[in-house]
Amino acid sequence: MKQSHAYTLYHPKWYRRRVSTWWWTQQWRSFKFILRELSSLAVIYFVALLLWLLWSLGQGEASYRNFLAWMESPLMIAFNVIAFLFVLYHSITWFNLAPKAMPVRVGGKRLPDWMIAAPNYAAWVVISVVIAWFILGGN
Amino acid sequence: MAKTITLEVARYRPEQEGEPAFENFDVPLNKDWVVLDALNYIKDKLDGSLSYRWSCRMGVCGSCGMMVNGEPKLTCATFLTAYDPGPIRVEPLRYFPIVRDLVVEITDFMSKLKAVKPWIVRDEEKPISEGEYLQTPRQLDNFKQFSMCINCLCCYAACPVVGLDQHFIGPAAIALAQRYNEDSRDQGKEERMDVLSQHDGIWGCTFNGECTRVCPKNVDPAGAIQQYKIKAVTDWYKSLLMPWGKK
Amino acid sequence: MDTSAHDVLLVGGGGAGLRAAIAISEFNPKLSVAVVSKVYPMRSHTVSAEGGAAGVIKPNDTLDEHCYDTISGGDWMCDQDAVELFVREAPKELLRLEHWGCPWSREPDGHVAVRPFGGMKNERTWFAADKTGFHMLHTLFQTSLKYPSVRRYDEWFVTKLLIDDGQVRGVVAIELMTGRIQAILAKSVIICTGGCGKVFPFTTNANIKNGDGMSLALRAGAPLKDMEFVQYHPTGLPFTGILITEAARAEGGWLLNKDGYRYLQDYNLGKPEPTPVLRSMELGPRDRLSQAFVKEYEKGRTIETPYGHVVHLDVRHLGEKKINAKIPFVRELCLKYQGIDPVREMIPVRPVVHYMMGGVSTDINAATPIKGLFAAGEAACVSINGANRLGSNSLTELLVFGARAGLHAAQFASEQKEGNTAAILAQAIDEKRRVEDQFLNKTAGRESISTIREEMQKAMEEGAGIYRTHDSLAKAAETIGKLQERFKDIAISDHSHTFNTELTAAFELSYMLDVAEAIIACALNRKESRGSHQRTDFTKRDDEKFLAHSLVYRNADGSTRVEYLPVTITRWPPAERVYGK
User: Fold this and answer.
1) Which chains touch C (3 or more CB pairs under 8 A)?
2) What one-character DSSP code corresponds to residue C358?
3) How far apart (Å, rounded) are the C-alpha atoms in residues B59 and B71?
4) How far apart are CA C305 and CA B213, in angstroms?
C-alpha cells in the first residue's frame, strides 16, 4: 500500500478542519446570532450617549444646545435610527431567551415558554409607555 | 430498477490522503431506511472499507452522530426520504478531529466529562441497610431532563464556541454537571462550580442556543448553562453581601 | 511487542463490566483494573434495556416468591442455589445504584416505585421510566469515573485470551485508533461482553452483540452452558427489530390478532380482563407468548406486512397521559421509527430474538473452569435464567454477578504471583502474526463478510428459531459447518491500521459462527421441549433425561462436544408451569 510521508505506522494522523473567519456568513441562523452579539455595541453606544447628554447638561446651557445641534444633524439621526433598530433586536432576542435561562415550574410542570416571555414583553411596553408619558405628556 | 438516491460520503484515509474528499454512492431509496441503513448498504455491498461508528440503531447508544447536509444528526433516526431527491451529504461531526472517514476523535470530550465530576458527591454516605434516599417525583423532575443526554455529541458539532475555542467544556458536559447539581441526593455543587465558573466553563457560552436546537433527546443544554450562570452570579452577590456566610 | 500489565482485566465495559470495575476498586483501590471494550462504555448494549430491574423491596413481596417466579419461569432449568443468592443480593444492589444517583421512578412519598412485569406474581420491577438500562449504564459509567485505579482501553478489540498452564494471563487486543496489536496481561480476567443476538437476522440486539466473549472463552477451552435457550421477545417492531418493552403490557397493553381478539386466552394463559392480571395473559412469560404468536400465524390469524407477519399491541386505552408518564420511550420509538402514534394507533409487533439464557459456564462466584477466568452478565450462564429468563431479571443479574465477579476476580488476583511471562509473550506474538497474516494483510480471498453473515442468520432462523426439529437443526448445522469453511477464504479489502471496521467485522463474524455452532449442537442434543427450546419432534419436557445443563466444549480438532451437568434443586422440585390461574 502506498503511504504518504506524513503518516507514521501506529500513529493516528487526525485531520483538523480550521474554522473559517467567515463561518457565520454560511447560515442565516449564525448570521442572526452574530447580529445579536453585535447589537450589544448599540446598547453600549446608547449608554455613552446618555452619559454625554448628562455631562452636557452639567456644563451649562451653551453646552446642552451644542449637544442638541449635534443630535439634529441628519447623519446622527440616521445613525441613531440604525442603533435603535439594533437595540430593539437585542431586546426582542433577550426576552425570547429568558424562558430558557429561567424555567418556571408550577405544580411540577414547566410553564410553556410564552408564559415566561409574555410578562417580560408586557413590562417592557408598560415601562416604555410610562417613560413616554413623562417625556411627551410632561410638556 | 427501484428508485435510488445519491450519498456524498466524506472519506478520509490518513495513510493515503492529506485531507478528506467526497465519494458518491447510489443506494436504494427504501422508505423505511435511515441514513445509517444506507451506510450499512454501502459497507456490505459497495465498499467494505467505509468506516463509521454505530450500534443500537434505536437512538439511545449515541454512536452514530454525523453531519447530514450540514446538520448534526443521529443517522439512525434520519430517514432518507426526508432528503428525496438528494443528494445527501454525510460528513463526520463538525469541530472534532477526524480519525478516518466518518469517525471522529472524542477522548477530549471524555476528559471534559470527567472534569465536571458527573457522580453523586456526599459529605457522608448513607449505609445501604438504611434504604434509599427519598426523592419525590417533583425533585426527580428537576434534573430528569438533563439526565437524558446520550453523549452523541451533536451539540458540540452545533456549537460555534466549541469550533472557536477547543478548551470550552461544552454543552453536554455542563448539562451533566447541572444534572447532578439539581439532584436532591447530591452535595457537590460547590466543587463543580469551582471547575465550571472558570473562563472555559459556563462563561465561554454565548447562548447561541444551537445545542438545544439540535439535541435529539431534548436535553436543553443551553438552558442548563444559563441557569448555571444565574446561579454563579447570585452566589457571587451573596458572598459579596454576606462574606461571613458559607461559601 | 507492546505489552501492559494489570491486576484484573475486564473484556467489555457495559453494565456488568462497570459494576465489576467498581467492585474491584472498592475491594482494594491499589489493584489496577483494565476495562477493555470495543466501544466507549456508554455505547454498550445495556443502554438499550427498557423495562426495569427486579428486586424485592415492597412489604407485600417476599424473596421466596421472586425465587419461585424465576425458577418456574425458567422451566426448572435454573440452579436454585444461584437463584436464592441472586434474589437475596438483588435489592441491595439496586439500592446501591440508587445511592450512586440512578434516577429511579418514585412514589409520591419519595420511595422507589415498582411496576408489574411478565411472569411475576408481585410488582417488584424497579424502573427509570422506560429507559432503565440507559440510566443504569450512565450511572455506572459516570460513577466509575471517580475511581483512579480504573484504566479504560476504549475502542480496543480483543482477539484472543492468553492461557498458560490452564490459567488465564491476559488478552491480545487491537487498538482501533492506531491498529497497534498489544498484549494486555492480567492476573485475572472477567468476560462481560454481553449476548450474541446478531447470530439471528431479526433481533433487538445492537450491532456489537456478536458473542465475542463466548467465542473467546470457548476457544480458550471453557465450556458454554445452555446455549440452546434463546429468548424471543414477543413484541419487536417489524423491520427494525426495535424492542417495545414488556412494560407496555405491564401497564395494561393488549395483544390482538387480525380480528382484534386477545388471542392469548386460547393458549392456556388465563382469561382476558380489562386491567392487567399478574402471571396471566399479556403478563405471561416471554417464551409462551412468542410460541403463541407462531400458533396464531399457523392459524392464519396474523397480519401480513412487507416485513413478515405481525400482531397488534394496543395501548390506546391507557390514554396519552399514562403513556407519556410510564412508557414515553415506547411512544418516541414508534413515532420516530415506525411513523405511528401509539396514543391513536395500534403498534405492529412480532417476536424477535432478544436474549441468550446461555453463556460462558460459571459457578455461583462467577468463576469459569479456567483458573483466573470469570464471566458475568449476559455473556455468562450461572445459571439463574434457566430455559427462559423472566423480564427484568437481567439488569439485576448484571449488577449482582458483575459485583460478585469483580470481588472474586480481585481476590484471585491478589493471591497470584507473576507467571511465566516469556511463554505468554510468545503466544501473544503468534497471535499478532495470525491477525496480520490471516486478516489485516490478507490479499487473496473471495468470500464476502456480509454474504456469509446473511447466510448464517438465515440458517439460524430457519433451523433454530422458536420451533425446532432434528431435521431443521441438522440442516442448520451443515450450513454453519460449510460457512466455517468458507470463512477461511474471506476477502478483506481494507488494510488500513486506522479504525479498520472491516477487520473487526471479520472477527465478529468468526465469533458468531462459533456461537451459532454451539447453539445448534446443544439444541440438537436436547431431545425435549423446555422453556424457549421447543422441539416439534419431542414436544414434552423430559426431567428424567434432561433436567441437566448442556455444556458445549470445543475439541482440539475444532469439532464440538456436548456434556451434561445436573441442575441444582434446593427447595422447589420440578413441577408444571402454570399461568393465568
Assistant:
1) A, B
2) -
3) 16
4) 36
C430 in helix, strand or coil? Answer: helix
C-alpha cell of residue C320: 396519552
Give catalytic status of residue C233 as yes or no: yes
Report the phi/psi class of residue A32: left, alpha or beta, with left for phi > 0 and alpha for psi in -120 to 50.
alpha
Q: What is the pLDDT of residues C170-193, one digit of tens each?
A: 999 999 999 999 999 999 999 999
Task: Give the whole-number percent of chain A exceeding pLDDT 70.
Answer: 93
What pLDDT was estimated at residue B242?
A: 81
C-alpha cell at C64: 421466596
Active site residue C249: yes
Number of neighbouring beta carbons within 10 Å of residue C305: 12
* Chain B residues 91-110 with CB within 8 Å of chain C: 99-101, 103, 105-107, 110
Alpha helices in C415-468 (DSSP H): 421-435, 449-464
Is the pLDDT at B112 greater than 90? The verdict is yes
- Tell me: pLDDT of A1 over 60: no
pLDDT above 70: residue C334: yes
Beta strand pairing status for C534-535 and C467-468? parallel
Measured distance CA(C143)–CA(C100) in Å, rounded: 7
B131 CB contacts (<8 Å, ≥6 apart)?
C95
Q: Which of C115, C249, C354, C554 is catalytic?
A: C249
Q: Is the pLDDT of residue C259 over 90?
A: yes
pLDDT at residue A19 above 90?
no
CA–CA distance, B155 with B169 (Å, rounded to integer): 12
Q: Where are the domains of chain B?
A: 4-104, 107-245
A15 touches C: beta carbon within 8 Å: no
Domains of chain A: 19-82 (1.20.1300.10)
Q: Are C244 and B99 in contact (CB under 8 A)?
A: no
Task: Spell out which residues of chain C touch residue A109, defining contact as CB-CB under 8 Å.
Answer: none
ipTM of the predicted structure? 0.96
- CATH for B107-245, options being 3.30.70.330, 1.25.40.10, 1.10.1060.10, 3.40.30.10: 1.10.1060.10
Cα–Cα distance, C38 to C25 (Å, whole number): 22
Q: In chain B, which among 27-66 make CB contacts under 8 A with chain C?
A: 32, 43-45, 47-49, 51-63
- Mean pLDDT for all residues in chain B: 93
The residue-averaged pLDDT of B126-146 equals 94
Other chains touching A, judged by 3 or more CB pairs under 8 Å:
B, C
Instruction: Find all residues with CB under 8 Å of B152, minimum gap 6, and list them.
Output: B62, B63, B64, B65, B74, B216, B217
- The alpha-carbon gap from B79 to the nearest alpha carbon of chain A, in Å, equals 23
pLDDT band at residue B247 under the 50/70/90 scheme: very low
Which strands make up the sheet holding C560-566, listed edge to edge?
C380-381, C359-361, C224-225, C548-554, C560-566
Cβ contact C67:C386 at 8 Å: no
Banded pLDDT at A94 (limits 50, 70, 90): confident
- Predicted confidence at residue A107, as pLDDT, reads 63
Q: Is the CATH number of domain B4-104 3.10.20.30?
A: yes
Residue type, A30: S
Please, where are the H alpha helices in B43-149?
Answer: 107-115, 137-144
Alpha helices in B55-119 (DSSP H): 107-115
